[in-house]
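Section handout 9: paired folding examples.
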Amino acid sequence: MVLAGGLSTRLYPLTKQVPKPLVPVVGVPNAALLLRYLKAYGFDEIAINVHYLADAIVAALGDGSQFGVKLRYSYEPELLGSAGGVKNVAEFFGDETFVVVGCDELTDLHLDELLAFHYEREAMATIGLVECAEVDQYGVVVLDQLGKIVEFQEKPPKGTERSRLANTGIYVFSPEILAKIPAGEFYDFGKQLFPALQAAGERFYGFDARGAYWADIGTPPEYRRASYDVVRGVVRIPQTVQNGIDPAAVLGRDVLIEGPVCIGPRVRLDDGATIVGPAVLDRGVHVESGARLERCILWEGAGVGAHAKLRDTIVGTGYRVRPETILENALVANDV
């Protein structure tokens, strides 16, 4: 199951127009990347819960056939929380072990190894974990020698962390977990279900996926990091162009491009424009003459006026930055 019901307020104003599952990573909706990722490990029956801008999600993903999977949508008029959303489609899982992934995960974590660990431990629940240098913005998990979870720390201040293993939001559950989740009410994995499992001494484990890539694109800093890591080749996304200039892009005279970039189809860079990477310019972007962009991400159809200067900025779908504007560390988008 892909969890996709949230509002993604941390990416406002970008996600006032685009729901979280459709936030593009180098021009591709992250939900599409997740479906391909799951399919690569043999998961071809996938449920996805929707709430905010649900019609846009359904229009983009369809029945899943374009990704080689069969999608089932679970519409939530009122949000049920991460665990409640899973409970709401309990009959979909039947009596099989299943995987749950958040729609804002970008990862290459080996699901086959995660599943093998889960089965070896005869676990009820297993969390995929990655080691991070800085964990003050993540949920931290402390394990014993066998991998059983003994403690959680939520965003521990620097110097107080008891582990550097961060919760990726990628979970494996045995079907008996469904009996632990109340029906028809809001119920959360991190705040309710997981503490209850730990307190009851259930078979609750963490899998140390050390070396795997993972980013939570639900915050601006992590979204930038993930996008730039793709462009730089730190992590590869299957079946997509990773970097470079699309042949259908149009470059004017004296255009300067420095560093790694992904410049999509029908992008227009007018005379004297400068792009300093890592940078992503999605399809149909127009950068007018003399504009300078450093470490920027422009979504589909965005525009930048002549002689504007943008640094560390994300520009939303169809938004136009006026000529000679100066933006630094900004998020701008159409407010709908």
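Moving on to protein 2 of 2.
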Amino acid sequence: MKIMFFDIDGTLMEDSSSHYMPESTPLALQKARRAGHLLYVNTGRPLCNVDEDVRCLGFDGYICGCGTYIECDGKELFYYPNPKTLCMEMVQLIRETGCSPLFEHRDAFFFDPQARELPFITMLRQTFRMQEKNIWRSTDDPDFRFDKFVIAYDGQSDMDTFRKGIAPHFTFIDRGEGFAELVPAACSKKTGMDFVLQYHHLDKADAYAIGDSLNDLPMFEGAGTSIAMGNGEKLIPYADYVTADLWHDGVYQAMEYFGFF
């Protein structure tokens, strides 16, 4: 038995409003499951942002929020919540350093009406609104907490102070173009994979990871075989194998090459 871990955006489907996916991708997943292999999503998205267009593909489980949440066959196996005090400390730090946040919880997104709102965060909010997600949850809500968060920043943001403030608690993942992802130091796409491999009594050699961007590097570290999509230019130098891009059946080609069906 083999196990494959999949990034979503840029790997399974376009990171766009259309969420385009080639017909070959669900076919490959179906063939691999029929052959008895395990398939997991491993994404930076929180659980509440893993929609039916992903769930309908029939995965065995999900690692969400960069390893902060794990489920298998609909059952929660692991969850890493941040203390409320730390969440509020980060809210204040972001306000003071002029960054623009989106806070991600497994059940909701939270925005901060007192923080700057840079164009990238505005765009995310508009995307969620079009997807009919609740965009009105706020850091002022009594139940506000987050599992991880993202920020937009620009030349007015005090990034030195921000990075010093988050350093004891969160890993800074630079996504480029003034966008960063902040993940609890104890969690990553790799720690999620380690947990799942132990749960299924599988070895690292049995694990394959496929992605397209630099936030998939921890996933590569947790896999015996790492696969970069052809559209993942920055990730390609770190991969054991480079498949075709998303639009030219990259997932199908990789799974066929490594004998998943």
